[in-house]
Structures are given as C-alpha cells and as structure tokens.
Amino acid sequence: MLTGYLLRIIVIAIIGGLIFFGLRKIWRDWSGQFRKLDREDDARRRARDLAERAQPGVIELKRDKDGTYRPSDGDENRSR
C-alpha cells in the first residue's frame, strides 16, 4: 500500500518535472527570438538614423558647458 503512494508521487514528480523543463525551454527559445528581433530592429533604426544624419541641412547639436545644446563648430558650415 505504501509503495502505491510512493509510486504515484514519483510519477507525478516526473510528469511535473517534464512540464517544468519543457515550459522553461519554450520560454528561453521565445526570449532568444525576441532579443534577436530587438537587435535587428535596433540595427535598422541605427542605419536609418545614420542615413538621415548624412543628409544636407541636418545640424548636429552638442551639449555646451552650461548644459545648453548648440550647433558644433563644423556643422554650421555644413548646413549652408
């Protein structure tokens, strides 16, 4: 009688472990996929920003000593 309860506990523990580790693997796979998509999105956004920055008429602002953003010295000639 005690072996029947022990056998049930062992079977339930094994099934619970399989479910837990299966869900853990699914979570890791999805998390990795989402991180990969985020990196690709960041790379696309960076490329777009660099292309926009290279266009004529774009002024790049630098932070001055007093905390105010002002055009840097080289950008004033580039925008004209």
Automatic annotation (TrEMBL):
Residue stretches of biased makeup (Basic and acidic residues):
60-80
Write out the entry's keywords from A to Z.
Answer: Membrane, Transmembrane, Transmembrane helix
Q: Which domain of life is it from?
A: Bacteria
Instruction: Tell me the segments the record calls region Disordered.
Output: 55-80
User: Which chain regions cross the lipid bilayer?
Assistant: 6-27
What protein name does the entry list? Flagellar motor protein
Species assigned in the record: Devosia geojensis
